[in-house]
Amino acid sequence: MKVFYKWLWRGLGLALLAVLLYQGWIYWQVTRLATHNPEETALMRARLAEMEAEGKPTRIDYRWMEMARISRYLQRAVIASEDATFYSHEGFDWEGIKVAAEKNLKQGKVVAGGSTISQQLAKNLFLSAQRTPWRKAEEAVITVMLEKSLDKRRIFEIYLNVIEWGDGVFGAEAAARHYFGKSAAKLTPREAAWLAAIVPNPRYYDSHRSSRRAARKTNIILARMAVRYGRDFNAAPRLVMPPVKTASELEIPKEPVDMEKEEAERPPDTATPEPQASPAETAPSP
């Protein structure tokens, strides 16, 4: 029996050492992101493996573009759509998590996740798409690493460059050229809002570009941008109190928009809370 416990403790010790070494390797990778742009991500590798398994051409369109050369409209559309409090939280939107939990309880299944931009980036850079307790725990650890090692501008710059935006399409520059045949610097507000609208399910919308649902979500995002950044979308961000009032010139659909239904239909890992109060950002922000 003593021999058994001896080997048990050795096994646990080795397992703990392996975990610590892995976390150290991840932390080293995260700190390098301050000065090095990622060459590929875990999600890119996963998509290439899927393409190969399905017998499709293995093609990834990934073009790095500096933040200054990415349309400010796109930056603001993504913030308005994905993470309204990005510049004020420390990696986790606790109010968003609370809202997501309430929706999940109401639906009786997981329909929302409340993930922030930092959490999405952690997952895309290093983790698999499998939804397991271990993956969510590791996602939280990496999110803390990102927030402690990089400033908000750098986190957002990497996010805009590595996020999936279509079938084999990654990053703002590749997306702008794929869908609109232009540079990410030249996107119009409506084009930027449409790109933000398809973030939750980009491969589906890649082949369903005339989707009415995407068009309605585009208008919702434009309305949020108008309230947050002014009707020309160029004002400094300001405190926004719900409910969001829409601007008439934005061609918002006349039929009522069920915001709860729109958000509940989003994939769990990218769902965001309904419009809420959001303080003006203190860091350089879109």
Could you walk me through the main structural features you see in this protein, from its secondary elements to its overall organization?
The chain has 286 residues and is mainly alpha-helical. The chain folds into two domains: 32 residues; 230 residues, Biosynthetic peptidoglycan transglycosylase-like (Penicillin binding protein transpeptidase fold). Helices cover 53% and strands 2% of the residues. The protein is built from twelve helices and three strands, in the order H-H-E-H-H-H-H-H-E-E-H-H-H-H-H. It has a three-stranded mixed sheet. A hairpin with a 2-residue loop joins strand 2 and strand 3. Helix 3 packs parallel to helix 9 and helix 5 packs across helix 6. The protein is globular and about 75 Å long. The N and C termini lie far apart (63 Å).
